[in-house]
Write a structure and sequence with these properties.
about 150 residues; mainly alpha; two-stranded antiparallel ribbon; 2 strands; globular
């Protein structure tokens, strides 16, 4: 992947990681699932190895491969990958004893993942619109004037 694309899509991936961290906090509060065999004892609420690892990297790759083609391709890719995660990979993790779903179904997980993907796409569009660049440019010119 070109370095420019990594730089371009990192803000959306970071927002997605933040949103998933919030989902983990909600999951802890509402007892949606229980993480078992966590890598770090202090990370019982949020699985940062997942959030900052494959999820963050996967988000950048999905944008890299689909964003320039359009929203429909991006959405289809997310529908397929989120379905694989929710209905194939998550049950595998349950069998391994890594996670136990309690007050949420696999379909609920799928819906949450799709919601995150639908939030970060317009965020990326907003970043690309130049609005962010003009805000930064205006802020820099004000700082230089002071």
């Amino acid at each position: 992947m070109p370095k420019e694309n990594l730089k371009k899509y990192s803000p959306a991936a970071i927002l997605a990681a933040f949103l998933v961290s919030v989902v983990y906090e909600l999951a802890y509060h509402f007892n949606w699932w229980k993480l078992k065999n966590v890598l770090f004892s202090w990370a019982r609420i949020s699985d940062y190895t997942f959030i900052l690892g494959p999820f963050l990297v996967g988000t950048v790759w999905i944008f890299h491969l689909t964003y320039r083609i359009g929203f429909v391709t991006y959405t289809c890719a997310n529908l397929l990958l989120d379905a694989f995660f929710s209905f194939k990979f998550l049950p595998f993790l349950e069998k391994l004893g890594v996670i136990k779903l309690k007050n949420i179904s696999h379909l609920g997980i799928y819906g949450l993942m799709l919601l995150v993907s639908l939030i970060i796409y317009p965020y990326q569009k907003w970043i690309d619109s130049g609005m962010v660049k003009s805000l930064v440019r205006n802020r820099r010119s004000r700082c230089a004037a002071d």
